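cron nightly-structures :: item 1 of 1
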Amino acid sequence: MSDVEHPGAQPSTVIVETLRSAARQRRRVRALLRAESLEGGPDYERFWEPYGVTDADAVVFSILRNEFRHVALNTIVRVELCPQTFEPRRPIED
């Protein structure tokens, strides 16, 4: 992901560090995403409980879907901490 590709996008390092920090603090996040299949399509928002980050994915519990998901990091435009905390549903990855 690059700032040039999407106006207002956070650098990928900021996204990864925010997700990791939120997981350690057990805080929900609000994420702005772009649709993978819709090049230039509309952005959409999701609320997650983050559990870890791999080289290419974020492991999150989706509040909307009520299930664990793997989300490609290159689809995340922006992520921010929410004030709400959560009780882990499974161990949080380091």
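cron nightly-structures :: done
Strands lie at 27-34, 43-53, 57-62, 67-72, 76-85.
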